Amino acid sequence: MNNLKFSPLKKLEIILEGEHQEFVTDLLDHAGVKGYTIVNNLSGKGSQGFHEGHLMFNEDAVLNMIITAVPEHLVNPIMEGFAPFFNKHSGVVFVSDIQVTRLEKFNKN
Amino acid sequence: MNNLKFSPLKKLEIILEGEHQEFVTDLLDHAGVKGYTIVNNLSGKGSQGFHEGHLMFNEDAVLNMIITAVPEHLVNPIMEGFAPFFNKHSGVVFVSDIQVTRLEKFNKN
Amino acid sequence: MNNLKFSPLKKLEIILEGEHQEFVTDLLDHAGVKGYTIVNNLSGKGSQGFHEGHLMFNEDAVLNMIITAVPEHLVNPIMEGFAPFFNKHSGVVFVSDIQVTRLEKFNKN
């Protein structure tokens, strides 16, 4: 079976307050990233104290993780787009190496 | 303390519509994979448009991520088993290198 | 833009029954780990049988995944701290290489 597509990409896992999610997804859209997956209602502890997902009264304050896979040459432009945001807001980005199938969903045309 | 087991494995993160979850877990079971973890109710955007987990009326249409760890020699057979499925259905598989403890839960006898 | 901080770290993904979550977060706190993110209400299948998150009656029995990023020199001490726990309890730890921005949230002063 030779129709399986396998390509090295960079996985970004972006964890931030849910209220700022659109800033990230808009930036990914503009960078040509076609697909991402969002894990909602995370809890987290960071320098800003403990955010307990299911005890939050303000729904906008819960944490989300946005997972996407991008070609390596997009990592730096995306990170530079995030930098001013993460200088002001709580959040973190994990970058790692992955192999991905169905590249057409994650790559620019 | 020498009783901690550490082994290099491949992590598979399989993101697909929840209604097809059993196809994947059955295939993993048949491949001898003993353990996996499922993150339910993901949102996602891909070439099929935006799937907003918490707004879905049809519970079966939300996205799930199935996380598992397998020995390297199982990656290709599993991927070849997935290929016909991903030619027809929305979804993606991320493959990455990990070190795992408690290998006995993730490896074939 | 040169103010983006990028550092190689080890990502730990610790999957265990939610009722034991505090053991892990306390150990991480004592190891000087400043931040972690928790994905709640996972389903899982392992040698202990199938744990179906949304069908659980006992809320304490669902699985959680605790995600954190630590400097490499902390991996072994943390793992050795986990070892007695994982000899008695269900769970798994995935260790992988990542690049992280906002290191100050995940590193010891």
Automatic annotation (TrEMBL), chains A, B, C:
Molecular function, one GO term: enzyme regulator activity
Superkingdom per UniProt: Bacteria
One of the protein's GO biological processes: regulation of nitrogen utilization
Protein name: P-II family nitrogen regulator
